[in-house]
Amino acid sequence: MAARYAQGMMTGLVVGWLALVPMAGAWSAAPESPSESASEPPSASGGRVIDRVVAVIGTQVLTLSELEFEARVTLVQRGGVRAAEVLLDEQTLRGALELAINQRLLVAGADRLQAFQAERSEVEARLRAFRERFEDETALLAFLARHDADLEQLTAVLERSVRAERILDSRIRLRAQVSDAEVRRYWEEHKGTLGGPFEAVRDTLKEKLFRDRYNQLAKDEFKLVRESVRIRRVAPFARTREGEP
User: Fold this and answer.
1) Are 62 and 84 spatial neighbours (Cβ–Cβ below 8 Å)?
2) Residues near 18 by Cβ (< 8 Å), separated by ≥ 6?
3) Residue 18's domain is classified under what CATH number?
4) DSSP state of 27
5) Is there a domain that residue 62 lies in?
6) Assuming Cys at both sites, which of 21, 146, 169, 207 could form a disulfide with 25, CB separation 3.0 to 4.6 Å?
7) What one-character-per-residue DSSP string does 191-220 give?
8) Residue 54 to residue 52: CA distance in whole angstroms
9) Is residue 37 in a domain?
10) Residue 52 and residue 40: Cα distance in Å, rounded?
């Protein structure tokens, strides 16, 4: 049960709390998005800045155009094609940055060990699912063109996501398992508010406890991963409060 649930929820875990903000935060109707004002300020010579660095993650440089594209890919995966054209507010960009940092750190660690290569079938399945969000191939290609990207770049983003999910899952899934005794104990402590006999709610409770434990272990894992890598946040919206990683 837990293994099946883990497989089905992986994208939700990695894409969800890791940590894109709720979709309402991304679908702002503001007249100007922070990404637009941040990406093309006037230069000293009166021209336009085409791109800028958002963060440096170890030795990896992440630009604003990369971050915006990855944010839109994730939003399309979560909310459909409407998310392809919404304005990206600062909260959404910060969430997308945390996701980008976490994924890159996981994959970089695996690269050093030459481990956890993504199965081609997994990446192709993810690409097919992404394609299905659009009316047809022309609409997909138009989306990519609007963001100066191509299918190769989209595939690379999806492949990194697949690898990050597999790496994270390999590290914490076993530790996230929940025993029947734990489920029973939780039910005994909360049966006054749960309603129904134990057998009727056992599977739902097991999934809930597994999810809660998985999320906490994931948070701990990323905190540990970040401790050994210097992360320099360059863009103003990317900077965290004092004391945060």
Assistant:
1) no
2) 98, 99, 102, 218, 222
3) 1.10.4030.10
4) S
5) yes
6) 21
7) HHHH-S-HHHHHHHHHHHHHHHHHHHHHHH
8) 6
9) no
10) 9
DSSP output for 44-74? TTS-B----EEEEETTEEEEHHHHHHHHHHH
Query: Strand pairing of 60-63 and 231-233?
Result: unpaired
Q: Give the total number of structural domains in the chain.
A: 1
Q: Specify the pLDDT at position 243.
A: 45
Mean pLDDT of the chain: 82
Give the count of beta carbons closer than 10 Å to the beta carbon of residue 83: 21
> What CA–CA distance (Å, rounded) separates 116 from 47?
44
Cis peptide before 19 (omega within 30 of 0): yes
Class of residue 120 by CB neighbours under 10 A (exposed 0-12, middle 13-18, buried 19+): exposed
Report whether pLDDT(205) > 90. yes
> Which has the higher per-residue pLDDT, 22 or 232?
232
Q: What is the mean pLDDT of residues 50-69?
A: 93
Q: Exposed, middle or buried, 5 (CB in 10 Å: 0-12/13-18/19+)?
A: middle
What's the length of the chain? 245
Domain span holding position 125? 2-28+51-231
Cα 229 to chain centroid distance, Å, stands at 19
- Judge contact between 96 and 71, C-beta under 8 A: yes
| Residue type at position 119 | E
DSSP assignment of 158-175: HHHHHHHHHHHHHHHHHH
Q: Does residue 173 form part of some domain?
A: yes
Q: At what angle do helices 64-79 and 151-176 cross, to 10 degrees?
A: 70
| Residue 193 domain-assigned (yes or no) | yes
Please give the structure tokens belonging to residue 38. Answer: 């941040």
Encoding tokens for residue 102? 């976490």
